[in-house]
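ARCHIVE RECORD
Type: protein–small molecule complex
Small molecule: coenzyme A
Source of inputs: curated submission
Record status: active
Notes field left blank by submitter.
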Amino acid sequence: MSEFLLRPMASADLPEVLAVQAQCYRPELIESADALASRLALAPALCWVAAHADAPRRLAAYLLTHPWPRETLPPLDGVLQLDGEAGDTPLTWFIHDMAVAPAGQGQGLAKRLYAKARQGAMQAGLRCSRLIAVQSAARWWQGLGYAPVALATEAATRVSRYGEGAVVMGTQIGESKNGAVA
Ligand SMILES: CC(C)(COP(=O)(O)OP(=O)(O)OC[C@H]1O[C@@H](n2cnc3c(N)ncnc32)[C@H](O)[C@@H]1OP(=O)(O)O)[C@@H](O)C(=O)NCCC(=O)NCCS
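STRUCTURE (tokenized, with ligand):
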């Protein structure tokens, strides 16, 4: 089995991020470098990559996450700026994109990336998480405790752009009774 090193994402990783994205998503879900860079810029500590141990610039997987107002959804392929959207709305930990290239799938990489980013989200004081599951990944997210959430009309319009079958999901993140991260 291959060895992977997990580390926070840097701007220099974006070409490899785009290469992994191209292997993982159907064409209508592919986002531009500018859109992905804007998400990384929102919260670099909450974006992680898994690099090949023997070729550390080559990525096997990435996870882009950022804070976002709880009641709205970021536009697919849009360049994000938090200032304009936030207002007084509480922020949620928004999981934008988890992608593991086919060669790295089934080795627990996605769960490891998630655990790293969640630690950062908790340190940032975020306690609620949201995501849009696409490509039939809802069942995978359910395994991490996410469940479908109801939406306001404006948000429902945005989710339709993520393609047929896209599901908005949410969960609480926090400490369990014995102090472990839940
Ligand atoms: C979904 C995805 C992130 C999982 O990554 P991964 O590193 O292979 O996941 P893990 O190794 O942590 O978990 C593998 C387990 O999840 C299961 N699984 C993988 N994809 C799944 C899916 N779409 N639905 C339900 N279960 C799924 C596997 O069968 C495996 O189960 P097992 O542990 O019982 O054998 C990866 O398949 C992927 O990148 N897919 C393409 C991009 C995508 O659709 N991302 C999600 C967008 S919301």
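CURATOR ANNOTATION: The pocket of coenzyme A is lined by residues 24, 98-100, 105-111, 133-137, 139-140 (CB under 6 Å).
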